[in-house]
Amino acid sequence: MTITRIHSGGAFESKIGYCRAVIAGGFVHVAGTVAAGPDVPEGVVEQCASALDVVRTALAEAGCRFSDVVRVTYMLPDRSEFEPCWPLLAEAFGDNPPVATMIECGLIDPKYRIEIEVTAMLPGRE
Question: Does the pTM of the predicted model rise above 0.90?
Answer without folding.
Answer: yes
